[in-house]
Amino acid sequence: MAIDRRREAAGGGPGRQPPPAEENGSLPPGDAAASAPLGGRAGPSGGGGEIQPLPAPHPAAGGQHPGCSSAAAAAPSLLLLDYDGSVLPFLGGLGGGYQKTLVLLTWIPALFIGFSQFSDSFLLDQPNFWCRGAGKGAELAGVTATGRWDSGDVANWTSPPTTPFSTASWGAAGNLSNSSGADGGDTPPLPSPPDKGDNASNCDCHAWDYGIRTGLVQNVVSKWDLVCDNAWKVHIAKFSLLVGLIFGYLITGCIADWVGRRPVLLFSIIFILIFGLTVALSVNVTMFSTLRFFEGFCLAGIILTLYALRIELCPPGKRFMITMVASFVAMAGQFLMPGLAALCRDWQVLQALIICPFLLMLLYWSIFPESLRWLMATQQFESAKKLILHFTQKNCMNPESDIKGVMPELEKELSRRPKKVCIVKVVGTRNLWKNIVVLCVNSLTGYGIHHCFARSMMGHEVKVPLLENFYADYYTVASIALASCLAMCVVVRFLGRRGGLLLFMILTALASLLQLGLLNLIGKYSQHPDSELQLKLAVGMSDSVKDKFSITFSIVGMFASHAVGSLSVFFCAEITPTVIRCGGLGLVLASAGFGMLTAPIIDLHNQKGYFLHHIIFACCTLICIICILLLPESRNQSLPENISNGEHYTRQPLLPHKKGEQPLLLTNAELKDYSGLHDAATAGDGLPENATANGMKSM
């Protein structure tokens, strides 16, 4: 491969043929010619998949062959493809005032998204209920066997976070007194649902009174009496929003790569206003669930496009910080949601208040431009030129200060036809599809096992009085997510993206395996005492130790799995090429949605299969630990712009090489081909002084 390129450099213009397809993955037609590597520079992390750009070929003296013009038209200037190295510095990087304004405009909607993400915890919380006319005393006497019929409704997941991500929310807290029985209040980690015979007295009623714990006077459950035989409809309503998000991520991601980020964002805003406000006017639970599906679909378009725009606006050193700020803003919405519910008092008012702030985003039609990086990557140079001039005008810059000559090169390429790519093209690659699949599995595992840890922690709520309160449950989960994001900022700074993801996945696997295995061993060895007194002491000590260990492992697991999910989404945004970035993000976010979807499905089946669910995800964590080692490191690296750039993001060692040490595995940039060495030596006069026949620089 390197020899063929050197032949072209030596042979000059006459009869030059376009380079063949890359060996590490077949490229779609039209992208092979634009397969010049990025011009970004490796950062201090020492890892990354950047390849040194080849020297530009020197045209031979004499006339130019007619085929040269068509060959040149197949590949745009390397200067224009190197967005982070040439175009972004020309615009002032993130130091320009206009760029800072645009980043701020991507942060503000994160607060509204946070409200929508965690609204199910309040709209669909299953309250305590008792037969109407039985009096308030029934709440203490009989509701404990009926009001919390599913006892495991602690995983009211709604959507993936804005960094990927963020976290999930749990609305209901589990059984109030389902554990106090003849055995002295001993509650297993996973309480079984109450017997149908115990529920008969309250379920024979035709009307109920409700004790809602979320600060609302009325919610969806109490509005349409979704209890007893109709309780399954609550779970259907819960995952209708999730299913809408999954489909939204997949479909809007492909559309955003084809028509642009801005149109998808604006149309998603318009339709979420329509569907979101209509949800508040629902006349039955079927209408509510259907409209929530479409609301989730539109919300996915907003989350996805804002995430991509935020990444594409930033220089390499600022991407993670900017993304984490958006995550903290979304968490602010999570922390403010209980106060908003207490202020509204009615679920319809709450739903309308959550959606109405999106009206402000209609102004984005006139103030938010298309992604300049996407315009350059898809070779829409005419629109890119107008947008660059708009940037320079907003930043009060002089276009003549273009040191690298971006504008003159752009003028030469104005006649090019746009080249847009769909995410399905990734199937024909080798490295890129592997990276995306690994991150999809990581995202699925992180968000899926998060519910297992949350369910295990909430199962001990009777023995831990703090967890009996809805607000204690809610803010415990939110605080764990906040601590996880703060830890990510520190870990990623020192270990990088891949090292941080590996560390958090190892913590998740350890917490899961210890919770499943160690706690069973404690119970096993406590069942063989020498006397009856030792038996009672051993059982009591065993239960106490198991509860403490289980809660500890659950908190550690929730902490680490949240970081795994968020980092997987961010990692995908960095290593996926600009031309298909939204499609790749859509795949990883949809995988996260599938992981979260297991929570309401398990609740719908009354917690049947919960233990197997946890075991499967625990095994997936072990597989993910191995697969993470196959990923590249993207810290301080330029974003790949086309599929070929994404293919060149190859795996690097976790630890940097010592000075003078020869690596055992060569990267694509270092592969040597000696098959045409004699021909290359003959044409050596056309090569630069510091280049050799195998493509490596001479010392």
Record the SSE blueprint:
Layout: H1 2-11, H2 66-73, H3 78-81, H4 83-90, H5 97-117, H6 120-123, E1 128-131, H7 137-141, H8 196-203, E2 208-211, H9 220-223, H10 232-259, H11 261-279, H12 285-313, H13 319-344, H14 347-355, H15 364-367, H16 372-377, H17 381-394, H18 406-412, H19 431-458, H20 470-525, H21 532-575, H22 581-604, H23 610-628, H24 643-647, H25 677-682
Antiparallel strand pairs: 1-2
The side-by-side strand order for the widest beta sheet comes to 1-2
Query: What is the helix tally?
Result: 25
* Low-confidence parts: 5-73, 136-200, 461-467, 669-699
The helicity comes to 55-70%
H-E order: HHHHHHEHHEHHHHHHHHHHHHHHHHH
Structural class label: mainly alpha
Notes on the protein architecture:
Helix 10 (232-259) runs parallel beside helix 12 (285-313) and helix 20 crosses helix 23. 57% of the residues lie in helices and 1% in strands. The chain contains 25 helices and two strands. With 699 residues, it is an all-alpha fold. The longest helix has 56 residues, at 470-525. It has a two-stranded antiparallel sheet.
